[in-house]
Design a protein that fits this description.
The complex is a heterotrimer of chains A (280), B (79) and C (374). With 79 residues, chain B is α+β, with helices and mostly antiparallel strands. Chain B has 3 helices and 4 strands; from the N terminus they run H-E-H-E-E-H-E. Classes of the chains: A alpha/beta (280), B alpha+beta (79), C alpha/beta (374).
Chain lengths: 280, 79, 374
Amino acid sequence: MAVAVEHPLDKYVRTEKLPTLWCPGCTIGIVMTSLLRAIDQRIREGLLRRDQITFVGGIGCSARIAMYVRFDSVRTAHGRTIPLATAIKILRPEHKVIVVGGDGDICAIGGNHLLHALRRNMDLMIIIVNNMIYGMTGGQVSPTTPLKLYTTTTPYGNPEKPLNIIRLACSLGANFVARGSATHPHILQQIFYKALGKRGLALIEVLSSCPEIFGRHIGITDPVKSFMTLRDKIKVKNNPSLDESEYDWEKGFVIGVYLDKDDPGYIDNLSLLYKSLRGF
Amino acid sequence: MEKRSLQISMARARHKIVVISERCKECGICITVCPVKILDKSSLRNSRGFRYPVASDENRCIGCRLCEYSCPDLAIYIL
Amino acid sequence: MRIDYISGNRAIAEAAIASGLKFFAGYPITPSSDIFEYLAEELPRRGGYVIQFEDELASIYAVIGASWTCSKAMTATSGPGFSLMVEGISIAVMTETPLVIAYIMRAGPATGVPTKTGQYDVFQAEYGFHGGLPIPVFAPSNPQEAYDLTIKAFNTSEILRTPVVLLSDASIANMFGKVLIREAGEIEIIDRRSIEILRKKGCEWSLDDVYEMKCVGDGYDIYVETLTHDEKNIYRPTTDVQRRLMWRLYRKIINNREVLFEYSFHNYGNKRCRNMIITYGSTFSSVSEAVRELNKNEEDFCVFKLKTLYPINEKIFYEKTRDVDKIFVVENNVGLYVKEIRSILRDKDVISISVIDLEYPDPDEIVERVREWL
């Protein structure tokens, strides 16, 4: 479709694939635009090169970000993004490798890979768009679905306690751990901006509203209401402590940067070990 | 002379709201987040049947870009 | 050029280095681990990377990722590991990612006897993944062939942009033999970046269905699509596009059957080949021993050893079997690959001789079983 007007971010988007597949009011698009703004900011400041950014996405609604951005992007099977990104980073260490995926993609089926990437402090930026449900497959329970909630595969309520991704990431030695929310795009952009400058693993959990699927389960299907419901649950803190990372749909969520350190990442360790071996 | 140029700048809105109507999915987030509440659903529909937003009074736009930042579909921006 | 006395696994590793291997990802599994260990020591010195991942799933995807940076990449595994990798191989087939998997078969099913041999997984190597598009499978029967076929596997994967399986087994893995090692420069090494040159120059390969590969870091807009896509790499869920894609991916391999199909034919001085034994892999050693015994009675046995299990060049099959009365297919399993041969040689008497043995099949047993049919 020929669109005469051009959005400021169009240069980073495969516009031929727009409109996106996301449902009306799905906030994954906000996550994508916030990320693109952060990238744009870094590129304009000369801190990042456009041809040195690689997106890796798996399967799921949020993984489609990799489909719409106009950078090198690789899509792969459900949950297998992290090992693929790891290999790209090892062979293209100058690249900023960004993994995008949903809570199901990265925490459930790709959970093992996440665990080991965190342990390695692998130099990746992992963005987990957490909408607390399996959206693309029609509303099944995910590892981050709130307790007792109805889903299509837990029709009598979810008996499982949801996963606190922040606590997991902090305990395993990532360099940068933050939680953002799609309802707060400015803060999200700042978090992404910071994360893009980190070595080692940067993990960002982004809470996102899903009016169509999650909304149906909680009884709020209106996009605006769904957006506002999540926004009302968000508390912004400057440097929240780990105890404040508690993941509870009833009590709300604290967003902010939970961990920010500068340990050597995997690539640093690897090149140090290989340096004497190769003489470069 | 001075007076005339002032009039022109008063008449012309400081911020221009551009809507790429074909990308809009009528979620209404931009309308809700706008702090001065100048956006509203258009009576017209785009080719997929969505009523995209229109600004009722562009002059009142304060240029906060909350609509631009909160649009999931890259459908609205401020010039 | 040098001659070395090495094991089958070591030959694979040496050939991989000679082919320009840049990245190896793996997970330890008997009997493939010594490929991994040897490369872990050797490859980093030559500018490559060898990484142990958390499982075989991660390994195969890491290999796919590495391949998308235009680096030659491989992994090595055995039956249970390959079962985990099949998901990724299907992705590699769809995304046309060149990679090599050294599949060292062991006695199965399940965990079976990890240190012992068998040929149980021929079909898994060929058809094990969803999508129904088989990939080239090479089966060496001694260390020298392991070396040569590994080089061929890398060249095939690069030129046809496809995953390739090198199907060895525990016996060959630990079999020592003289191997003529040719260094890079003495052998033809094809790189995916030279496909366009080959296409212009003209070559024995059929390259009509192969597209040029752009990698991560070449520009800024490559897009690797795992969904059904058209020629412009855009997702199109239509029958028309699905058909075009499926047939292209299928033709890409099958139209090169003449280049890919390798075999050796042994008539042991017989003028006529009345009885033919078809075999592949480590079972060939037992078969050649058995044939010596069988030929004593002037039965005129010859052996047709397959080095490529997929794709098969039917023309050569028809040619070789024109005057043959009986065909015996000797395998170290319950009789699997014989089904493939029966589907080609429909008018011939194809007899399955399956000898399950944790070591090499006993030649005497083969002789006994074959004589039952004479």
